[in-house]
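A.,

Following up on our hallway conversation. Structure tokens first:
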């Protein structure tokens, strides 16, 4: 069974920042500069945690993985769309 996650990161070094961004790009929906929305199995989230841990410097960088409730309503304020154009999110 898959669950939804919000992955947010604050990476101090531009090189590591770009690596983390590229790593997550194919695994979720890029919502903001350093925020991804992902629908993942327990095995996928385990692999992502391992992959990110190999890309970051734990003493300098901060990565957060927040599990989300299935029935939630996102509130978007300011610039930008809630979900990038052309992307549909289906939750079982």
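Then the amino acids I'd put at each of the 92 positions:
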């Amino acid at each position: 069974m898959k669950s939804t996650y919000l992955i947010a990161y604050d990476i101090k070094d531009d090189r590591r920042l770009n690596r983390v961004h590229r790593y997550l790009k194919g695994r979720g929906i890029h919502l903001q500069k350093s925020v991804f929305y992902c629908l993942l199995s327990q095995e996928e989230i385990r692999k992502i945690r391992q992959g990110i841990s190999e890309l970051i410097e734990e003493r300098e960088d901060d990565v957060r993985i927040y599990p989300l409730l299935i029935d939630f309503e996102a509130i978007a304020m300011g610039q930008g769309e809630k979900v990038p154009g052309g992307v549909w999110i289906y939750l079982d």
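The chain has a mean pLDDT of 86. Curious whether your intuition agrees with the design.

B.
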